[in-house]
Q: What sequence folds into this?
């Protein structure tokens, strides 16, 4: 392959078009020297991990206490196990949550019979995913899990063709990279990779890269909200 006309393309989230849905579902107008290329390689991604593990989509606790249905919400944020336990107990006064460091499950006690309803969006986090019989002491059926997502997947229309996935919006996108979240909240995560984002059928065909859309998604392929933390991607772009 002729790599004599190689360009380094850097895409920064702050340079997204104003019409973009968000910083993490963004459209970009690329420079003219990146148009009509025949080969693209992902090089590196860098971003600050500001992901909340409790968001507006997984912060509601539904339960029954003394035969009365109740519901409370936890303020979105990044929680350690101790702070989440405090938040659960502060949000209501009927149930007492205790993190069991041996079983890695939540134990619950209450003055009157109670149980956790399955309609709560926080259930997977706290480990209550099967319906219990009302009691004054019981435990979750699964370990608590405060990991928001194991990877940040970078999806695009226009830059990648070899791996196609069905995202939450029902469209198929190419995967540029899957970046493991190996560093905790507040740290800069960097992933370098020489992944060929073109398959054999289009490697020698011209690709118009004048406009691309890039999405950052979680393991469920839902667009993330990184609370204003920007990101940078770099590519090698080859032209004839």
A:
């Amino acid at each position: 392959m002729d790599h004599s006309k190689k360009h380094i393309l850097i895409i920064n989230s702050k340079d997204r078009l104003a019409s973009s849905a968000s910083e993490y579902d963004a459209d970009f107008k690329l420079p003219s020297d990146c148009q009509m290329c025949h080969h693209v390689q992902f090089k590196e991604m860098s971003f600050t991990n500001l992901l909340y593990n409790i968001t507006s989509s997984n912060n509601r606790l539904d339960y029954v206490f003394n035969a009365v249905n109740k519901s409370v919400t936890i303020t979105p944020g990044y929680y350690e196990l101790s702070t989440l336990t405090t938040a659960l107990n502060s949000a209501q006064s009927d149930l007492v949550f205790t993190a069991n460091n041996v079983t890695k499950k939540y134990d619950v006690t209450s003055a009157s019979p109670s149980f956790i309803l399955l309609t709560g969006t926080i259930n997977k986090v706290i480990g209550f995913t099967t319906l219990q019989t009302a009691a004054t002491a019981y435990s979750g059926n699964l370990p608590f899990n405060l990991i928001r997502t194991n990877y940040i997947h970078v999806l695009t229309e226009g830059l990648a063709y070899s791996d196609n996935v069905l995202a939450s919006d029902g469209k198929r996108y190419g995967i540029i990279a899957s970046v493991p979240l190996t560093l905790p909240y507040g740290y800069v995560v960097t992933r370098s990779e020489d992944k060929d984002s073109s398959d054999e059928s289009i490697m020698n065909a011209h690709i118009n890269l004048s406009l691309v859309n890039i999405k950052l998604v979680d393991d469920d392929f839902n667009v993330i909200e990184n609370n204003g933390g920007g990101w940078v991607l770099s590519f090698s772009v080859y032209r004839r």
User: Anything to note?
Assistant: The longest helix spans residues 81-91. Helices lie at 81-91, 123-126. The chain has two domains: 5-51+149-239, 60-139. The first strand starts at residue 5 and ends at 12.
